[in-house]
Amino acid sequence: MPGIFDVIYEDGELVIVNKLAAVPVLPDRSGDESLKQFVSELRPGKFVEPAHRLDRRTSGAVAFAKTRHCLAALSEAFRERKVKKTYWAVIERQPDGTSGTLRHRLIHDKRRNVSKALPADSDADASVSELSWSLVGRSERYFLLEVRPLTGRTHQIRAQLSAAGMPVRGDLKYGARRSTQNGLIMLHARKLDLELPDKRHIEVTAEPPPDEPLWGSFEDALNN
Fold first, then answer.
1. In the chain, what's the furthest Cα-to-Cα distance?
2. Which long-range contacts (CB under 8 A, 24 or more apart) does 42-51 make?
3. Which of 110, 144, 184, 221 is the most exposed place for a label (fewest CB within 10 A)?
4. Is the whole model's pTM more than 0.85, yes or no?
5. pLDDT in tens, the chain (224 residues)
6. In contact, 120 and 160? CB cutoff 8 Å
């Protein structure tokens, strides 16, 4: 559906879409139409269920199962960390160095829907969240990071980058200076690399939303 999502991979059991708009993946309390509903409209009466989620204001690759068997297989792959996820994040401040690893304990406030990243050596009652990042591009005022989360926690990348002094552009909740025109933050699920229990290997790449011209400032990275 133009402007909402593009299909980037599909077979008999699986469809992977590129989420391009600020919509929830599943129905929520807002009552807004969800990505699941938009995808289901193209397959009326058929089983369609997301195997994972992206935040409403995050763009990029989302995998939907078209059968219950596939959903179970995908859920197992995510649970066993056999899914490699690569994100792009645009930040406003030049990072210290060209790569690094962040480790924090994340405390999620469900009422406010915000996560606080505390030092990994703190005594907070939370598992350690970890991600790696590398600087892959720069424009006149912004910097493009490639981010690989090693764990999957609510708002993990957003909270950890913010705690490291590198909030994502447009992410006012986590310290960005201003919002973006399209309502998204500049955090994009760029790649999904799936290893399924039946030994299938699927890798997809999702292009950034075309209505945010700043992505085009990182031309070298876009072409790799």
1. 51
2. 42/1, 48/15, 50/25, 50/26, 51/75, 51/78
3. 110
4. yes
5. 568 999 999 998 999 999 999 999 998 888 889 999 999 998 888 999 999 999 999 999 999 999 999 999 998 888 888 899 999 999 989 999 999 999 999 998 888 888 998 988 888 788 889 999 999 999 989 999 999 998 888 899 999 999 999 999 999 999 999 999 899 999 999 999 988 767 788 999 999 999 999 998 887 766 76
6. no
Q: Give dist(CA 20, CA 119) in Å, integer.
A: 33
SS3 state of residue 95:
coil
What domains appear along the chain, each with residue ranges and CATH number? Answer: 5-222 (3.30.2350.10)
Select from 133, 134, 148, 143 the least CA-distant residue to 218.
143
Question: Rounded to whole angstroms, how far apart are CA atoms 68 and 51?
Answer: 11
d(CA 144, CA 65): 31
Query: For residue 24, what are the contacts with CB-CB under 8 A and spacing of at least 6?
Result: 30, 32, 34, 35, 56
Q: Given the structure tokens 């790449």, which residue do they identify?
A: 205
